[in-house]
Amino acid sequence: MSSDDPPQVEYRPPRLPVEEMERRAREHYDLFRRRRSVRAFAPDPVPRRLIELAIAAAGTAPSGAHMQPWTFVAISDPAIKRRIRHAAEEEERRSYEGGRMPPEWKEALRPLGTDAHKPYLETAPWLVVAFEHVWRPGPDGRRLKNYYVRESASLACGFFIAAIHRMGLATLTHTPSPMGFLREILGRPENERPIILFPVGYPAADCRVPDIERKSLEEIAVWFEG
Q1: 10 Å Cβ neighbour count for 196?
Q2: N or C end: fewer C-beta atoms under 10 angstroms in the chain?
Q3: Could you give the angle at which helices 149-166 and 18-32 cross, rounded to 10 degrees?
Q4: 43: helix, strand or coil
Q5: Residues 173, 198: contact at Cβ < 8 Å?
Q6: Is 11 helix (H, G, I), strand (E, B) or coil?
Q7: What is the mean pLDDT of the segment spanning 102-112?
Q8: Domain range summary for the chain, segments of one domain joined by +
Q9: Which three-class secondary structure string do you get for 65-131?
Q10: Higher local confidence (pLDDT), 119 or 106
Q11: Looking at the DSSP assignment, which residues form a beta bridge with residue 75?
């Protein structure tokens, strides 16, 4: 290693017996196969420290050139949640009723029973908005390029969902389109673009979810073995 090489540290995670690896993998799969997107939340409070831990977990995701091009904005303020709900519902009405959605899109959504009405954006104790950094400001004011921005931010969002579910909470990947109102309401800089709005909380006592099935392993995996 030359003096010009970037500094490195040792990485030696424990090498577990295959049986223990399989046990952990099955435990992980069994937990996450029960995960469901929730649109009915209890108003019960969720401590801020739990949201902090979920965002911290999201921040450990891999990213292109280690640029970490994301910001997570957490909101529990009722007034701000109300503004977000009203703006989101307005955009959704334009999509559902104003011709933005082609018929095939509406048909794909029909089994999920979704519409422009989003009361959970106020009921859930927390809203967390994930922003991707389209570019980053340089020291001289220039716009510097980030790499694999959408891929990186999406990975961080996946880590966030996993952390939320693992602690026993629920969420939903809500993506009203367009989403520019979130940057305006939350006062984010021009280089940040919202990609997912997560309501977070406990499922309501009477929460029901669509009866859906996921694709089997055989449908999603292709193997080339030696």
Answers
A1: 23
A2: C
A3: 90
A4: coil
A5: yes
A6: coil
A7: 78
A8: 39-204
A9: HHCCCEEEEEECCHHHHHHHHHHHHHHHHHHHCCCCCCHHHHHHHHHHCCCCCCCHHHHCCEEEEEE
A10: 119
A11: 127
Would you put residue 152 in left (φ > 0), alpha (ψ -120 to 50) or beta? alpha
pLDDT for 37 equals: 95
Residue 25 pLDDT: 97
**144-154 pLDDT per residue, tens:** 999 999 999 99
Cβ contact 105:206 at 8 Å: no
Asked if pLDDT for residue 193 goes beyond 90, the answer is yes
Tell me how far the alpha carbon of residue 206 is from its chain's centroid. 24
Average pLDDT for residues 44-66, to the nearest whole number?
Answer: 98
pLDDT value, residue 104? 83
Report the distance separating Cα 154 and Cα 47, nearest Å.
25
Measured in residues, the chain has a length of 226
Q: What are phi and psi of 47, to 5 degrees?
A: -60, 140
H-helix or E-strand spanning residue 52: helix 48-58
Dihedral sign, CA of 102, 106, 109, 113?
positive
Q: Provide the token pair at 164.
A: 């939320």
Q: Is 88 exposed, middle or buried (0-12, 13-18, 19+ CB in 10 A)?
A: buried
Contact by Cβ (8 Å): 191, 137: yes
8 Å CB contact between 134 and 192: yes
The confidence score (pLDDT) of residue 10 equals 94
Task: Report the alpha-carbon angle 163-131-91, nearest 5.
Answer: 105
Structure tokens at 25: 């993998």
Contact call for residues 151 and 172 (beta carbons, < 8 A): no
What integer pLDDT is reported at residue 93 of this predicted model?
A: 84
